[in-house]
Amino acid sequence: MTTAEIVDLKGLPFELRRLQNNSGSSAVRHVLRTLPMYFGDKRAIPFYSEQASAVKNYSLGAYLNARQVGIVVLRSSTDDTGEIAVLAIVPEHQSVGLGTVLLDRAEQEAIRRGHKCIIAATVGPKQKDPNFMRTLRFYERHNYRMLAEFDYMWPGVWCAYLVKQLGD
Questions:
Q1: For the whole prediction, is pTM greater than 0.85?
Q2: Where along the chain do its domains lie?
Q3: Which residues touch 29 (CB under 8 Å, ≥6 apart)?
Q4: Mapping DSSP to helix (H, G, I), strand (E, B) and coil, where does residue 50 land?
Q5: Tens of pLDDT along 97-127?
Q6: Nearest CA to 119 among 95, 147, 100?
Q7: What homologous superfamily is domain 5-165 in, according to CATH?
Q8: HSE on the CB side for 159, CA within 13 Å?
Q9: Interval 128-133 mean pLDDT
Q10: Which helix (H) or strand (E) element contains residue 111?
Q11: Are 84 and 122 in contact (CB under 8 A)?
Q12: What is the pLDDT of residue 168?
């Protein structure tokens, strides 16, 4: 996408813009700081913002009235596999369909890159965190299935590893 795309969700005109390098990184930092219930660990924000600055990664920002309100970052893990490295929406614009739109655009980009499947990781159900159960249900509604749940990716935290087949 070379120009901005406007999507109307519940009467609100969200602008979607492809972000490059540092603009993607600062967008991730901005959005994640509004979500301490998900990204309260101070080490997480620099890690995720680095994902958006990687040249080969696809970053798409969502704006409302020129204010950053959402971000998705797709990383190519292998030739066949894409990964949702970051997907976040500021609290006041969650549950309007913006996450679905951003996820859809990332999946379209993954298909364009020739990926056969896409993966995502979130805190797993064994952690019993209601915020992350909401995230897990979001991915499940979009046909992601839990491949595994383990506690070695993030020390002391159960991780759900999700996968979705693309195309076909």
A1: yes
A2: 5-165
A3: 45, 49
A4: helix
A5: 999 999 999 999 999 999 999 999 999 999 9
A6: 147
A7: Gcn5-related N-acetyltransferase (GNAT) (3.40.630.30)
A8: 11
A9: 90
A10: helix 98-112
A11: no
A12: 64
Sequential DSSP letters for 66-77 = TEEEEEEEEEE-
97: left (phi over 0), alpha (psi -120 to 50) or beta: left
Instruction: Identify residue 161 by its one-letter amino acid code.
Output: Y
Please, which residues bridge with residue 89 across strands?
70
User: What residue type is 115 in one-letter code?
Assistant: H
Between CA 80 and CA 126, with CA 149 as vertex, the angle to 5 degrees is 150
Encode 135-158: b = buried (16+ Cβ within 10 Å), e = exposed.
Answer: bbebbeebebeeeebeeeeeeeeb
Q: Give the pLDDT score at 1.
A: 43
